[in-house]
Amino acid sequence: MTATPADPVGPAARVPDPRHFDADPLGYETARPPYPDALWSRLRALGVLRPGLRAVDLGAGTGQATGPLLAAGLSVTAVEPGARLARRLTERFPAADVRVARAEDVELTPTGYDLAVAATSIHWMDLGLVLPRVRAALVPQGRFLVWRNEFGDPTAALTPFRVRVAGIVADRASVPDVRHRAGTTELAEMLTAGGLFVVESVERMRWRIDLDEAQVRGLFATFSDWSEAEVAAAGDAVRVLGGTVREHYVTPLIVLRRA
After folding, report:
1. Pairing mode, if any, of strands 75-79 and 13-14?
2. 229 exposed, middle or buried (CB, 10 Å; 0-12, 13-18, 19+)?
3. What mean pLDDT comes out for the span 115-133?
4. How distant, in Å, are the alpha carbons of 9, 52, 108, 127, 210 from that of 148?
């Protein structure tokens, strides 16, 4: 099983490139909003943020999940394939065991972890390779947590800014390849299809944030399928709409146990 279905029809698909993130680690670090407090509260309630637990953070980036895990008293192995991102991760969190590798290739100690995390990273991974590695690395009662910030809550009222964003996307000459944006239910099915994991729970944290023009430009520049011109257009839309826009986001959390 892999994380991606067949390529979209036609030669003009715009394929996101994971190397995009490694080009500007500081931009990624400062522009991406942190995960919501409700997520960390839920993880505390699940009992997975206890001091002394061992966690592996797959696709750690610049430490948006690694940092809070360390702060909660866990020991963390942070796996990041981007050399620049990994260097920044080491600078920010010297207590982490940073490994420059893909999740598909990294060597992990068998039954060496109580917790595995894929925070806004699972869509880049080959699940057929990653899931057996994660299962082997977890203790029998270990959990695998998968979450991501989804930019734009489909249940929230459509804002003028989201109308502008939709217009920018509609004007594209090429169609973005959205293979990595499986819905939460579909993703949970993909993660359990091989029989290695079972779903313990699926939850969604809904939240909002106000962003100014500079913040929107910085954030949208981190999206791997957005061009510089489109980022500029999103920033211009904020200015036209009064200088600040409110974004409604959702953070789905899939909690898995070893089967």
Report:
1. unpaired
2. exposed
3. 96
4. 27, 25, 23, 16, 19
SS3 track for 116-174: EEEECCHHHCCHHHHHHHHHHHEEEEEEEEEECCECCCCCCCCCHHHHHHHHHHHCCCC
Handedness of CA 60, 61, 67, 68 (dihedral sign): negative
What's at 153, amino acid-wise? Answer: D
Whether the CB-CB separation of 238 and 245 falls below 8 Å is answered with yes
Q: Check residue 182 and give its pLDDT.
A: 76
Residue 109 tokens read as 């100690």
Asked whether the predicted pLDDT for residue 134 surpasses 50, the reply is yes
For every residue of 159-222, DSSP letters joined together read PHHHHHHHHHHHT-SSEE--TT---HHHHHHHHHTTSSEEEEEEEEEEEEEEEEHHHHHHHHHT
pLDDT of res. 2: 28
191-224: pLDDT as tens digits: 999 999 999 999 999 999 999 999 999 999 999 8
For the chain, the residue count is 259
**Separation CA 252–CA 115 (nearest Å):** 18
- Type of residue found at 220: F
Residue 13 parent element (H or E): strand 13-14
pLDDT in tens, 54-68: 999 999 999 999 999
